[in-house]
Amino acid sequence: MDIDTGAGLLHRLTSYSGAREWDVPIDDPRVRHDLTPNDPETSPPQVKAYPGDLPVTPLPRDLPDPGGPAADVLSGRAGPARPLDAAQLGRVLFLGAGVVRTMVRDGRPMLFRAAGSAGARFPLEVYPVTRGVEGVDDGVHWYDPVAHALVRIGPPAAGDTTTLVVTGVPWRTGWRYAERGFRHLYWDAGTLLAQLEAAAAAFGPRLRTVFPDAGVTSLVGADGVHEFPLALLTLGDGEPAVTPTGPATPGGDLPPVEFPLVTQAQRAGDGDGLGSPWPIGAAVEPSPKSETLDAVIRRRGSQRRMDRTKTVPLESLTWPMAAALRGIEIPHWVAVHGVDGVEPGIYRWPDLEHPIVTGDLRSELERVSLGQSLSADAAYVVIAAVPGDDLDDRSYRTAQLAAGVVEGRLHLAAYAVGASASGMTFLDSEVPALLHEPGSLVTLLFTCVGVPEYQSKAGGGPGDPVAVRRVVPRLVD
Hints:
Layout: H1 6-13, E1 56-58, H2 70-74, H3 86-97, E2 99-105, E3 108-113, E4 124-130, E5 139-144, E6 149-154, E7 163-168, H4 170-177, H5 181-199, E8 205-208, H6 213-219, E9 228-235, H7 260-268, H8 293-299, H9 315-324, E10 332-336, E11 345-348, E12 357-358, H10 362-368, H11 374-377, E13 380-387, H12 393-416, E14 420-424, H13 431-435, E15 441-450, E16 466-467
Parallel strand pairs: 2-16
Antiparallel strand pairs: 1-6, 2-3, 4-5, 4-7, 5-6, 7-9, 8-9, 10-11, 10-13, 11-12, 13-15, 14-15
Helix pairs in contact: 1-7, 3-5, 4-5, 5-12, 9-12
């Protein structure tokens, strides 16, 4: 990866170092210094808005729960195939991007989606491009997560398979994380796609991260700067319906705040062709008993406090990891603090017999994760990273998204076995030494898994989110 251009430059200039505070930008003219992070006066809208004269298809609010155990779905053993109709499509969309919880913070309402997001920024939009869905006209639609409805924004696309286009809005996450928010777009997209993929298991979902960027951007009415496509998920094996046949109506309420470094990194990886779908991965056995997938998704949250005095059984590490990494080859390490039968230390997954380093590393993990206590209180911390020499501008994006997919699956798997999970950021400069790897290692994402100190309130249904209160994580001075 070229660290002087494109994605490589962005990664270098947004890497956290112990030499400065995480919220202090690096002294470089290519990074914006004129924006105030977390300024309530510039907080972007949480959802897009469209003209009121566009056709709207309300989706059924009584979701058809197929009843399949979450562990079976995550293990790759989906139930029988079924036809795709408005109710089934609505279930998939809601379990990924629907609003399930609300909170009032600083006098403003906050909307929490079914899939988690770093800093509760929720910078993603989902566009179902429908083909042959009973009860839904063929066309390009925007999913309204508040109304649980489809807004038709464009004509039917060429292609034969209903496709979900996931886009990112840089300013929504950049408002808090500045240019580093580019990474969060892909982490969050992976987390969302993990839940969409699981919810759509009966329809044979296939994920693509190589596609004609300009064409898909035009398809959904984005501009490629303030919003751009991140991934495609087809609900079946056929040709994705992503070739536009006419213009799409652009949505409003996207503040014209640009991070030139983000725009350049995204465009450096753009391409013209449609790539192959990601491999599905072999099914994992055995899987534990669990609640239904729908119940687990509604119950999951981003855990803010874990009980470091308690441990988890070995199976609560081995099965979630195996399920989370199905079909994904991104290297992962595990820092073990409290797993029954496993000596505390750091391991290169899947080898739990030969630790890289042993001993109590709670304080070190806490330091490397910017003083966030979850990395010390967790039973184990999963670290995704990849050699920088193996990446180019496009594969950098794919690697970040893959880490997000693993985090999303791991999150669901943890809740399925009675544990909890939360994603975590880190000091880039410290991770290679922690893992005994070369300094060129590109760290992608931390995921903390452990015993919850409290139980998250289950999310509500479409149009009926539950009100929750803020849980403040422990921080080290």
